[in-house]
Amino acid sequence: MAIYNEIAKKIRDGKPSPGQLLPSEHDLTEEYNTSRETIRKALNLLSQNGYIQKMRGRGSIVLDVSKFDFPVSGLVSFKELADNFGLKWGTHVHELVLLKPDEWLKKELQMTGKEEVWKLVRSREIDGERIILDKDFIKKEFVPTLTKDISEKSIYEYFENDLGLVISFAKKEITVEEVTEEDQTCLDLMGYKHVVVVKNHVYLEDASLLQMTESRHRLDKFRFVDFARREHRA
């Protein structure tokens, strides 16, 4: 992991740059004074996490990682995404309150009663830059307690490990919108005037709607990827 993290950081820093070859397994073995098997494991991790493409007979080609691959079809938390890339991350909680939903929020969360809803607003930081603003609305009937400490870590880990909730699927909507005053306050926008907004309605295994999340991403930092297979008809 130490070798993987060091090489991954070099690639993120642009040295080596996209399209270049990494040193050979033999050269890396000598550089890190370790076994070839250890180097192979580190290279496999780099390949799995999108840093390199291993080419038989050529070596390992460095890929462009200036943008983070965000899986469209998957349900991946910010913490999981950052950990997969071996990135230094942080979360800043701007708002955590219980509120009575208005008509718009009742519709979004498919509510008819007077249940309260958690509103959680967090900015997400990677390598010192705040690049995501997450706005979560979570039904209190499923999550009776939510704290700032939990919110600074991973609410999904809390939902699944502590509350025993089984998160099953989400419906997603992706749009590009102009930045708001809230975006300007909470994000390091670097002059960008638009953000990519991913709106999630997240459901439990019994198809109960758990939460609605609006994630606002800085334009230059993400690409949204999916895997599609064409069905061949006879």
UniProtKB/TrEMBL annotation:
SUPFAM superfamilies: Chorismate lyase-like, Winged helix' DNA-binding domain. InterPro entries: Bact_HTH_transcr_reg, Chorismate_lyase_/UTRA_dom_sf, TreR, Tscrpt_reg_HTH_GntR, UTRA, WH-like_DNA-bd_sf, WH_DNA-bd_sf. The keyword Lyase does not apply. CDD domains: WHTH_GntR (cd07377). One of its GO terms (biological process) is negative regulation of DNA-templated transcription. The keyword Transcription regulation applies. It comes from the Bacteria. Pfam families: GntR, UTRA. Keywords: DNA-binding, Repressor, Transcription, Transcription regulation. Gene3D superfamilies: Chorismate lyase-like (3.40.1410.10), Winged helix-like DNA-binding domain superfamily/Winged helix DNA-binding domain (1.10.10.10). GO terms for molecular function: DNA binding; DNA-binding transcription factor activity. Residues 1-65 form the HTH gntR-type domain. PANTHER family: HTH-TYPE TRANSCRIPTIONAL REGULATOR TRER, MANNOSYL-D-GLYCERATE TRANSPORT/METABOLISM SYSTEM REPRESSOR MNGR-RELATED. This is Trehalose operon repressor.
